Amino acid sequence: MEKDEEFLKAYLQDRKKLVEEALQGFLAPHGNGPSEIYKAVHYSVFAGGKRIRPILCLAAVDAAGGNLAPAIPVACALELIHTYSLIHDDLPAMDNDDFRRGKPTSHKVFGEALAILAGDALLTEAFVLLSRTGKIMLPAEKRLSVIREIAYAAGISGMVGGQALDILSENMNSDENILSEIHRRKTGALIVASVKAGAIVSGAGKNKTLALSRYGLNLGLAFQIADDILNVTGDSAIMGKKTGSDVARGKLTYPSVLGMDAARQKLQYHVDEAIASLTAFDERARPLRVIARYIENRQE
Amino acid sequence: MEKDEEFLKAYLQDRKKLVEEALQGFLAPHGNGPSEIYKAVHYSVFAGGKRIRPILCLAAVDAAGGNLAPAIPVACALELIHTYSLIHDDLPAMDNDDFRRGKPTSHKVFGEALAILAGDALLTEAFVLLSRTGKIMLPAEKRLSVIREIAYAAGISGMVGGQALDILSENMNSDENILSEIHRRKTGALIVASVKAGAIVSGAGKNKTLALSRYGLNLGLAFQIADDILNVTGDSAIMGKKTGSDVARGKLTYPSVLGMDAARQKLQYHVDEAIASLTAFDERARPLRVIARYIENRQE
Lengths: 300, 300
Description:
The structure is a homodimer of 300-residue chains. Chain A is built from 15 helices and two strands. The first copy, chain A, is mainly α and 300 residues long. In chain A, β1 (99-100) and β2 form a beta hairpin. In chain A, α3 (52-63) packs antiparallel against α15 (286-296), α4 runs antiparallel to α6 and α9 packs across α10. The interface between A and B is large, with 52 and 52 residues.
């Protein structure tokens, strides 16, 4: 059998291409929006994102034996929501980051007003994409379920609530419970929604949907721990953003709360749990499995 | 027959009460969001809004002879989206307003970061509300149509695009075409979506839906012209916000582009057109008719 590494590389490349093409098509100016807002939206959506969430959605469809075509607009909507959250998180009033993936952040290029609006636009257009006529070949009930999952994950119970907690907890005493809560919401919720949306699109049964959610929950935590570790040990040239910024900002992170060794152990634990939740799936879940291992060893 | 004025007062009171109660129920902390974000969301949603969009939605349902109950969550979602847009528009990077409806704006009370997040939360929770299980007694197809209308109106083709145009056009040469374009998107699109959502919920036929859209389009323009006029002539004590701010900021407005007399004529024209588009409707469209007259004479 092909080695995991080669398999993953080919899989990510192929799925990423599907997503890139679909995003290009969807974000082509409709002819009726001011060109500046399209420029700002394009700038951030095509700034070199790894498309983790869309790929997870498609990999869940693969695992559940579903059809890829109806999942592609859903995958794109997830990326739009992720990109909106990055633009708003980078704003001066929030994390005040000048660089993201090696490029100046949206507000550095377009100014704060347009950056706020570009984020607002991406969040809203995700729901345009999920609801528009004729683009998603799914029964209305399934589409509504997908919208519900994604909206819930992006809202107060998920991403927005997590970002609020994150900001409110800066320079607070370290506490692993708060930290887990922040990440479960801030990054975890949308990752869970990505695999669950894949399960809904594929018509997966209750047990498989639950197993995929468990995978997503563990993967999301692993992803965040790896992110925190990289912020300390990572090579800023590879990552395209400053490292060490969490410490400078007094942010709660896994290494700062648990120490580096325990943080690495925790990362390993959640990767193992993610993979263990897929025992009921056959070889078609291989992408999900190798993605989990990849998170464990990520360099960027 | 009851005088228009009394009829309108009673109607607005009654419908507003329905909306307020539903908003209170929906925005009760779910027990799993950080309390600060709920505080910020509550502060702006219950800051004395007139609930024009929800009331227009319900009045369209009345006009089309539909059921109010399934329209109420839709009406609330419209108000959440409207409130989000006010919070973001008031931000220092945007219009930099310190007061709204006589109260300090969100960022003055909660800081910029939480104000941005409160806006993001309201926009997202609108879609949670529109998609959640068991709360809207509507077939999935109709719910999807409502989501589509509202998302489209709030997105790049509508509200966000209009706000971007508005900011980009500050201190530009006055041009009535640009001005109409800004307002058609910035306020008009969501007002049209409000009456169209009412039409969809009620299962109104094609002609009635078109007539209601025409009403919304004209009402939206009338509403904005009245707003611009009030910004020049209004009593800031009644309005709860500074007047004269548009001129100070070099903003394009109807009085600045057309002159005050022509602006008043245009207001009258759109109110008449709005009412004329309702000829196929019976007495049940009286609320929509008197609301149009009220816009013409608004003092706040």
